[in-house]
Amino acid sequence: MNKALFSLDLRCLRKVIIIGSTLLSLIVIAVWLFVYFTNKDVSIDTFHVDYQYILVKVLSPIAVFISMYIGRYVYPQYHNFQINENLYTTNISKKMHFITHVSSASIAVISLVSISTLTIVTVSLLFNVFTLRLLVIQVCFLIGLLSASFIAQTLVILNKARSTTTWILAIPIISYIFSIISDTLKGLNTKTIIVLNNIFKYIDFLSFYSIDLEATNISNIAEIDFLHMTIIFIISTILLVSSFRKFRKKEMI
Amino acid sequence: MIEIKNLTKYYGETVGCKDIKFNVKQGDRVGFIGPNGSGKTTLIRLLTGLLVPTDGSAKVMGKSLSDKDFHKVFKDFSYLSNIPIKMNQFYVKNVISYFRKLKNSSVEYVDYLIKYFEVETEKKIHELSYGNTKKISIVVALMNQPRLLILDEPTSGLDPIMQNRFFSELKRLCDKGMTVFFSSHILSEIEDFCKRIILIREGSIVLDTSLCKLKQRTHKIVNVKNHDSIINLNGLSLVEEQLGKDIYHFNGEMKELLECFLKRQIIDFTIEDVSLSNMVEMYYESEAI
């Protein structure tokens, strides 16, 4: 990894990290306060269920969008071609560029999740409802967002900038709209719905969180499909790593 | 320093440059000229590895464009783009500092360049004029004291004082052995600085010669003042009659011309080389010099 390039990347991403993490933290605080004031009996049992629900229904599209934006932005050649001409005429190999950009995007996503984790942990400690389950939810959240960032980086390498922007906007919106539709149509369970569900399960980077409000046991309401999460992460990592071949031969203008 | 063999670049069906062949030796100062859209920037971007050629090959400082370690040439090779650095949200000092680290350049030389070009380091880039952002690009391009420097319209936006300073610094680095490949539309600066001219038109090289040879091959402009009759001499042709002054083009032995003037007792005259600008203009008109 090239230190100077890494710090330049993070300097470019500073605004996104600050705005993104503030936005996510404010949403967490706002929604949590709303839940607390409308439902006074907050208990340790229900805390993680409530938080996971907020995460899936409110935070998910925003967080996925920010992560994909970070993944795209970290390749400054597509964002600002004037930087590109100067950056790619320095004594830094394409491999080093690739590793550094992947690392800086990952660090930016980690910072984003760390700050929102700090917020939710503080909130839970204030209400005396902290559980380790909360940290597990956050680690899975991080893995989902890293996958989103990897896919955005892959798209940047494979596509031109404009189509990448369309994708990073489209993916979170499509998956969010579909999650609403599939909730509404849950009872139907037709073949088409099942097939579409399976497709969108892999477009939505946080689809491994499942919420079943009809579950009889409270611990079954909010579940995490760890296998599904692992598959999403492995696939996005493989796609990103294999895009390096294209990146090495890619024109930088 | 640069070896190009049949380098070709197509953008879809459009020709960027076609079948380019030439070499540049160490210490050369090559002026690269051509009309807008002729393929100058395309060729430069191919040589810097920013674009990938459709066909042909090129070596820069011994490394082929297709080599995996081509980036290593940038230790001693710099490129000054025609578009200034536009990292608007950054302070100038930060931009220079990042590139100094990326290019592993000496702090002393960078500080010298900042003072020499009067770069305003405490401002953000978006607060600067076009000319001042161009100065940042110049500092970034020169900071590693390259052995090979490719310039794409380097002086556009610079005031005359800064242009002079820029050429003084280039000449100082050239004295140390730097090779310069210089693309510009300002032909007078190419004429002053370069020893060799490469002319590109519609993606192909149409002229590659030394400036000296080019001037020898072209006629001289002879201005004869206060002389009533038309002079008849082999190689001398009248092109314009002005009040008290006749303008001739002369293509022949200088000795014969001077002898002719001596015989006719013509003492008020000047002999000039055709300017590069006129030569290029003539080339476009007649397609041959």
Q: Would you mind describing this structure in some detail?
A:
The complex is a heterodimer of chains A (253) and B (289). Chain A has helices spanning 3-38, 44-73, 76-79, 81-87, 94-126, 132-158, 161-184, 191-203, 218-221, 226-242, 244-249; strands spanning 209-211, 222-224. With 253 residues, chain A is mostly helical. Chain A has a two-stranded antiparallel sheet. In chain A, helix 6 packs parallel to helix 10 (226-242). The longest helix of chain A has 36 residues, at 3-38. Chain A starts with a helix and ends with a helix. The mean pLDDT of chain A is 82. With 289 residues, chain B is α/β, with parallel strands linked by helices. Chain B folds into two domains: 2-214, P-loop containing nucleotide triphosphate hydrolases (Rossmann fold, 3-Layer(aba) Sandwich); 220-273, no CATH class. Chain B is 33% helix and 29% strand. Chain B contains nine helices and 14 strands. Chain B starts with a strand and ends with a helix. Chain A binds chain B through residues 2-5, 7-8, 11, 15, 80-94, 248-253, and chain B through 45, 48-52, 68-69, 71-72, 74-75, 77-79, 81, 83-87, 89-90, 94, 98-99, 101-104, 137, 140.
Percent of residues of chain B in beta strands? 25-35%
N→C terminal distance of chain A? 23 Å
Order of helices and strands of chain B: EEEHEEEHHHEHEHEEHEEEHEH
Largest interface: A-B, 29 and 32 residues
- What would CATH call the homologous superfamily of the largest domain in chain B? P-loop containing nucleotide triphosphate hydrolases
Name of the CATH first level of the largest domain in chain B: Alpha Beta
Order of helices and strands of chain A: HHHHHHHHEHEHH
Q: How big is the Rg of chain A?
A: 19 Å
| Count of distinct strands of chain B | 14
Shape of chain B: globular
Q: What's the rounded overall pLDDT mean of chain B?
A: 86
Please give the order of strands in the largest beta sheet of chain A. 1-2
Q: What structural class should be given to the helix and strand makeup of chain B? A: alpha/beta
Tally of helical runs of chain B = 9
Into how many domains do the coordinates of chain B divide? 2
CATH architectural group of the largest domain in chain B: 3-Layer(aba) Sandwich
Mean pLDDT rating of chain A? 82
